[in-house]
Amino acid sequence: MSRTVLYNGKVYVERGCYAQAILQENGIILQVGSDKEVLTAAGDAERIDCQGKTVIPGFNDSHQHLFYMGRAMFFPDLTKAQCAEDLTRLCQKYLQKNPESKGFSAAGWNEETWAPAYRRKPDKRDLDKVSEEIPIVLTRICAHACCVNSYVLQRLGIDREHAVFDGAGIEVDEGGEPTGILTEKAFHAALDLVPNLTREELKLALTGAMKYAVSRGLTTVQSNDIGYVIKDQEACCSLMKEVYDEGKGLLRYTGQMFYDDVESLKGYCESPQFGESYADDWFRRGPLKLLKDGSLGARTAMLGFDYLDDPGNRGVEVNSDAYMQKMIDCAHDHGMQVVVHAIGDEAIRRVIRMYDEANGGSNGENPLRHSLIHCQITDDTLLAHIKASGLLVAYQPIFLLSDMYIVPSRCGDEMMKTSYAFRTAAELGIHASYGTDCPVEDLDPLACIYCAVTRKDLKGQPEDGFYAEECVDVETAVDAYTLESAYHEFREDVKGRLKTGYYADLVVLDRDIFTCKSEELLKTSPVLTMVGGKIVYRAE
Questions:
Q1: Is the dihedral of CA 471, 475, 480, 482 positive or negative?
Q2: Which is nearest to 444 in space by CA: 455, 434, 433?
Q3: What is the separation of C-alpha 271 from the centre of its chain, rounded to a whole number of angstroms?
Q4: Distances in Å between the alpha carbon of 127 and those of 53, 117, 121, 158, 440?
Q5: Residue 33: other Cβ atoms inside 10 A
Q6: For the residues 507-513, what does the mean pLDDT come to?
Q7: Residue 104, φ and ψ in degrees, nearest 5
Q8: DSSP label at residue 307
Q9: pLDDT at residue number 519
Q10: Residue 162 pLDDT > 80
Q11: Which pLDDT value is given to residue 228?
């Protein structure tokens, strides 16, 4: 029997309510209260002195890609590049160390952050200098665009006569020649040409990512990998179970499931594996994940107006309304939650209509808790409709680190006033959870909370915050990252609070985030992370 008492802490129970101590037994919280009453009840339980430090529920990232983060350790880190030529050098160095490679992908380049003199996208010529014999796919930081070499273009049949790809964008130069920049479905088709990691490498990627996640205070991730990073859903789930069976699964994982067609989705929904929970709720199969549009960084998010810096472009419709409605209806009819990537206002508008169709109207009834992932470019009418339809939102405040410098020029000041609307959503009573979309951004919850609270970059700019009217307080941000994320996965009765009967999923922080200056949020670190009563991380 596992019994632990954490005492002499500042335990966050809910807004305005704190305790001193927590007693857990076999992964469930038995008592929360003062040191005296909890220590009296603790008996011979293991005792952990929190030394006055703050204890909060474990963070729960409501949308990310944990496998993608883990697999990055095997390939060049493109975030280090400061120009297109750097990408070439990084890839040449990788291939020199791995001469037997049959193709590879890497991620993280962002031309928007390069010095003006070097601010051009990479192209196929940059990658052809690395190799023209194997597929090379370099993913942009937004994960909705990539640069490929000529080998990939040839394999996909893309040339000046065939520069069209359904649900995608293919960039061409003034002469009509494909440059090597692909977006959306063409990007994913390119990734399919790259050999995946071996099973053992994938397990290393997953466990490595988990180690980092718990070191940052995450106790649950809702991650879109099944059917996405690993196309074979059952093979992916089998690998996940193996990790937990070996005792290497350090946090709870809810899979956001990816299916390409109604037939395969229906087959899953009618299988014994539907909605499976495994290893005492550490691994669960969760909602259907769909994509409606792309990203703002790649100018593929669907807008109801032209991009101001790209007249004539309103983004890319990754999947048609007809296809999306069939998928949503199939999932809905089988009792499966749906979460849809929708960034631009036009994509959001259409997805709301589809959810209303599945739910029988915008009457506030949303029993399966269908959700909008990202939901970035909004106006007051859209936000009111989201509330009226009872829809959930999974926000990524950390996106502001990059987006505050590019989105105003794409969408304009008036639209910015009602976008990334974290405070408005909270005031409207919308169930809004927080996450990072890792590896698009780092999975660090404290950096994400900093962005929600300050709307500043890591250097504290702009001084007054980016459209600061939408800043939230720390309690709202913590609740969004814990209780609301648990609500997103139908687990608010056992996660997201430090109360009797809840899972002993918690993190002890090295400073009081409720009273410290906002810039200190970036300096805050976990000293202990516990999942199900097990200590999965302790600072050295």
A1: positive
A2: 434
A3: 27
A4: 50, 20, 12, 16, 22
A5: 18
A6: 98
A7: -155, 160
A8: B
A9: 95
A10: no
A11: 87
DSSP class of residue 198 equals P
The three-class DSSP label of residue 474 is helix
What pLDDT band is residue 362 in, cutting at 50, 70 and 90?
A: confident
Report d(CA 337, CA 328) in Å as an integer. Answer: 9
CB count, 10 Å around CB of 132?
14
Residue 143 scores a pLDDT above 90: no
Please report the pLDDT score of residue 168 as a whole number.
66
pTM, full prediction: 0.94
The residue among 144, 199, 208, 235 whose CA lies nearest residue 443 is: 208
Place of tokens 């994938």: 202
Q: What is the pLDDT of residues 320-343, one digit of tens each?
A: 999 999 999 999 999 999 999 999
Cα gap 254→530, rounded to integer Å: 18
- Are 288 and 334 in contact by the 8 Å Cβ rule? The answer is no
Amino acid making up residue 504: A
List the structure tokens of 496.
């997201």
What mean pLDDT do residues 233-255 have?
97
Please give the order of strands across the beta sheet that includes 178-183. Answer: 104-109, 136-140, 145-148, 178-183, 168-172
Find the DSSP H helices in 72-129: 84-97, 124-128
Number of CB atoms found within 10 A of residue 427's CB:
12
- Cα dist. 488→209, 291, 311, 537 in Å? 22, 18, 37, 25
What the block records as the tokens of 418 is: 């009602």
Cα dist from 182 to 103, 162, 186, 372, whole Å: 17, 13, 6, 25
Which tens digit of pLDDT belongs to each residue from 99-136? 999 999 999 999 999 999 998 999 999 999 999 999 99
Query: Do residues 445 and 59 lie in contact, with contact meaning Cβ atoms separated by under 8 Å?
Result: yes
The tokens for 150 are 């000529």
Instruction: Calculate ∠ Cα 408-411-412, nearest 5°.
Output: 60
Q: Is the pLDDT of residue 476 over 90?
A: yes
The two structure tokens encoding residue 222: 């809702």
pLDDT at 31: 98
Among residues 257, 206, 207, the alpha carbon closest in space to that of 228 is found at: 257
- CB 44 within 8 Å of CB 3: yes
